[in-house]
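Bug #2210: token dump truncated for Glutathione-dependent peroxiredoxin?
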Amino acid sequence: MLKVGDRLPAVTLQEFVDTATEGCALGPRPVDVTSDAAGKTVAVFALPGAFTPTCSAKHVPGYVALADELRRAGVHEIWCVSVNDAFVMGAWGREQGVAGKIRMLADGSADFTKAAGLTLDLTGKGMGVRSQRYSMLVVDGVVRALHIEAPGKFEVSDAQTMLKLVQQQ
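Reproduced locally. Full output below:
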């Protein structure tokens, strides 16, 4: 399992791009975790699934509400990672109003989640292999803090806990 001091898994996630720009077409685009985290302080949070109750009512909204404060405290980017496809993550991001605040990164085949050792088997609930709920502070691609939630809990991966952590750095 990923731990403090480890580098992020060298995998590719997907991000849905809503607006076509020069060199960037509309739709899913690959995100190389290693290069996108290089030289940055990134607040990463992961959750079991888009549009699910706690994820939609508490987890994402908390990071949206504190995005500006996190940036003032030194966070360059906020990443939300979930085992969903880029189209779902894009639609969920629009519904949650994350534009300019959170990058919604799809881990469709759970490559990142598996490499991090943070899978959650929800096959019995019809959801397959998903991600555990967690947050981590990453500096230049290296995990500086990792907070993994106990099953069914939402106590240590929230935006307020991340903000306190970043302010103490």
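Output looks complete on our side. The first strand starts at residue 12 and ends at 17. Marking as cannot-reproduce; reopen if the truncation happens again.
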